[in-house]
Amino acid sequence: MLFRLPPLRTICNKPVVFSRRRAFKTHTRYDVLNGGDRIAHISFETPHEAGKPALHILGPSSLRSLTDHLHTLARDGSLRALFMRDTIAGADLKYMRNIEMPEQARSFIRLIDELCTTIQDFPVPVVAVLSGHCLGAGMEVAAAADMRICCRDTVFGMPETKVVR
Length: 165
Description:
Elements lengths: L7 H5 L12 E8 L5 E8 L11 E2 L1 H15 L4 E6 L5 E2 L1 H5 L4 H19 L5 E5 L2 E3 L1 H8 L2 E4 L4 E3 L8
Parallel strand pairs: 2-4, 3-5, 4-6, 6-8, 7-9
Antiparallel strand pairs: 1-2
């Protein structure tokens, strides 16, 4: 079944909200199509100070929560598409700086990989709507989607490639 994309202006007209907080809440709303089929729209709520820009960042708890939420949505037989409507800026750099043991690093990378695999294996098309900064792990998550819609202000990057010892 084909579905219509909302006008790009509608998707990209939303201001990007950023935060230094490690966790964000996931919200899902549904559009019901003729015949009862549904399209899910995932968005993120990140606590932030008024007037200050910040980013949706992935820490271990956010990675687990989002992966679990996607597993729940994947069991919905009436779902025909999934829109991830907020850009994930990347991994939580504060958390990464405090990693002391190699096993902690491996565990964190496994969580990112599990999220990306869950998106890649999702039973219906996943569309990532991107606006603002999409860096590192956020870019990996976007690349895992079946389709990406980018607003003019989207910035891509892999800052970890600049890490020097």
